[in-house]
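Here is the promised in-class demo. Please do not try to memorize the tokens; focus on the logic of going from shape to residues.
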């Protein structure tokens, strides 16, 4: 009986021992699976099963808690970086060597007018040249791409960097449209040049004009005195020739002074006085101004605003002056052509900006000329000063906008003001 009882007790102890080991292994297995599958929502209940077992479960709970904190911190950092990337105003694209896109931000979607981008090959419709550059660009390189849209000109600067994640080679490029910055720098350079030239020319021409006028009066008085004193005709004729030459000099110097003062206007544009006004009101004033001239030259003028209640925040007088200048150019372009037509259009473009367009069906502008029409002093008109379009660009720059030209020879020419 004693042996039987001792044997039974030993059997129970062995069973309890193996059960304890199995339960410990199951708890340990659950803990390791939580780590393997990143499931940190699991907890281990402490139910008074012995001090060592309770300490083990407490240790597991503490480890899982630490993992939860690390994961929460990583998620916070991830969402923080995502927010920064999406908020930044420069377009960012991360893609693999085969063109598969890993990441884009909102600025990229806005720049290329896409909702989603899975492969940069999809950007070929935007610019085939840009896609080729993206595939070829190397680490630390940068390049400039010019993209001519129908209503806009983009100067895109691209900077690239490369890195490797999980054996995947990723190229990260930043793309920024610097067209407005280039125009501002160009205009600032022209303004500095004009200020220097006008200053030097004025300093030189003003005394010449004054002296020529004074000498002309002296010669005139001398001619009259010689006539009264009975001088020969040859002497009087010689003095009259000198007087005529001085008058020519004086006339040309006055003309040059007027010419210089005209170009000084580029550096004296007043700051815009912003107000909100309806574009329909602006167009009505301009159409009324040219109504008689358009009718006399048999030119049709179409006005279209979508929506009709579209408003603009700008200096109405300055913008009116820009449009008047563009319409004068359009009238000159279509004058004498059959079915001559000028359009005044306004709407919201695909980028959500307000645009005003002046379109004519004249002979158009040649590509080599189109690139230079906004340069000060450049003109194709015999009597032109080359200041109108330069002044218009300066006015738009002060409004934070742009003016661009698009032309199809013998079809249409379109000037677009973007605000």
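The designed amino acids, position by position:
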């Amino acid at each position: 009986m004693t042996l039987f009882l001792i044997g039974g007790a030993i059997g129970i102890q062995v069973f309890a021992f193996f059960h304890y080991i199995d339960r410990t292994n199951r708890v340990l297995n659950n803990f390791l699976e939580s780590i393997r599958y990143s499931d940190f929502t699991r907890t281990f209940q402490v139910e008074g099963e012995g001090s060592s077992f309770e300490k083990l479960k407490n240790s597991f709970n503490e480890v899982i808690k630490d993992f939860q904190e690390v994961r929460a911190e990583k998620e916070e950092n991830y969402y923080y970086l995502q927010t920064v990337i999406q908020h930044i105003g420069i377009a960012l694209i991360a893609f693999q060597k085969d063109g598969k896109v890993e990441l884009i931000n909102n600025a990229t979607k806005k720049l290329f007018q896409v909702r989603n981008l899975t492969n940069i090959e999809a950007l070929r419709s935007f610019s085939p040249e840009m896609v080729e550059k993206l595939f070829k660009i190397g680490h630390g390189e940068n390049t400039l791409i010019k993209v001519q849209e129908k209503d806009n000109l983009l100067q895109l600067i691209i900077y690239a960097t490369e890195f490797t994640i999980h054996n995947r080679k990723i190229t990260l490029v930043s793309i920024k449209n610097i067209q407005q910055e280039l125009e501002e720098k160009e205009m600032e350079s022209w303004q500095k040049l004009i200020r220097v030239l006008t200053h030097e020319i004025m300093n030189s021409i003003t005394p010449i004009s004054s002296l020529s006028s004074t000498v002309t009066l002296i010669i005139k008085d001398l001619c009259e005195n010689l006539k009264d004193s009975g001088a020969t005709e040859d002497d009087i004729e010689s003095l009259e020739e000198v007087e005529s030459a001085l008058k020519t000099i004086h006339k040309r110097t006055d003309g040059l002074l007027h010419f210089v003062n005209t170009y000084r206007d580029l550096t004296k544009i007043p700051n815009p006085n912003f107000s909100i006004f309806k574009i329909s009101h602006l167009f009505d004033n301009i159409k009324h101004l040219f109504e008689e001239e358009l009718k006399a030259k048999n030119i049709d003028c179409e006005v279209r605003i979508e929506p009709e209640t579209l408003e603009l925040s700008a200096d109405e007088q300055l913008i009116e002056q820009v449009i008047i200048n563009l319409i004068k150019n359009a009238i000159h372009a279509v004058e004498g052509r059959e079915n001559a037509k000028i359009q005044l259009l306004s709407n919201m473009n695909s980028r959500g900006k307000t645009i005003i367009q002046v379109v004519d069906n004249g002979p158009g502008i040649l590509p080599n000329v189109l690139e230079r029409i906004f340069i000060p002093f450049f003109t194709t008109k015999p009597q032109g000063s080359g200041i109108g379009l330069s002044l218009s660009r300066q006015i738009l720059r002060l409004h934070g906008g742009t003016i661009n030209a698009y032309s199809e020879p013998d079809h249409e020419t379109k000037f677009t003001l973007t605000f």
